[in-house]
Amino acid sequence: MAGNTGTPGATVTGRIMSILSGFDEHHPRLSLTEIARRADLPPATVHRLVAELVRHGALARADGDYVIGRRLWDLGLLAPIQSTLRETASPFLHDIHAATRATVHLAVRDGHQVLYVERMSGLASVPVVSSVGSTLPMHATGVGKVLLAHAPEDVRHRVLSSLTRVTPYTITQPGLLLKQLERVRHEGWATTVEEMSLGACSVAVPVRREDEVVAAIGIVAATIRRDRGRLTAVLQVAAQGIARQLGGIPPR
User: Fold this and answer.
1) Rounded CA gap, 191 and 222, in Å?
2) Which one, of 153, 218, 173, lies nearest residue 192 by Cα?
3) Mean per-residue pLDDT for 230-235?
4) Domain span at residue 183?
5) Where is each IclR-ED domain found (predicted)?
6) pTM of the complete model
7) Is residue 47 domain-shared with residue 81, that is, in the same domain?
8) Angle at Cα 104 formed by Cα 139 and Cα 217, nearest 5°?
9) Which of 53, 64, 177, 194 could form a disulfide with 58 if both were Cys (CB 3.0 to 4.6 A apart)?
10) Do residues 125 and 216 share a domain?
11) Does residue 145 form part of some domain?
12) 88 shares a domain with 62
């Protein structure tokens, strides 16, 4: 038995990872009791380790509960793909923002979710639920659909087997979503229409490095019906520029 926990074979690192893994998009804030239950650890152990995590900024207090701390996000930005992406994409994202005045996103896949690495807010009052460092369902977002279309087969299978409805317009039929993903791979862009939040639509394209889709960039606006072609063209030009800077093959 490792440490002072009743879980045989558990290391301190393993217990900390169990605590942190209890947080997800459906559980962004947890009480001490909930953390212990989701981590399957004794409350006394969780109390001690959570206090350490708060002291080091990995967790933070929020009205009696706990949330992921800024320190974890800061460390995550040091990962080569994310730090390189943000630095490389930044001038292109500013160009998109200047040309469209819409909310602009840079996102990567994080397991079975989409992680927002950068966001530039638009001028229009369009409801946008994303924030830098947040994760959202891939099937309900434009950037998420792009990343899901190019994800490994096992990732697509898991996402398709657990489609949740966020708004009345969220695609929850696996067959319909599969057809959309095939179109994304063929046409090079994805759209959503009020699937993540009412009153917000999006269009997104992939960013490639060599033969791999490493990210997606997207625009959120009140409507994309009339401007979809123009917005897609702006995004694709930016994606090609980012791909060149990353040393990859630009998308066709």
Assistant:
1) 13
2) 218
3) 94
4) 77-246
5) 71-248
6) 0.70
7) no
8) 55
9) 53
10) yes
11) yes
12) no
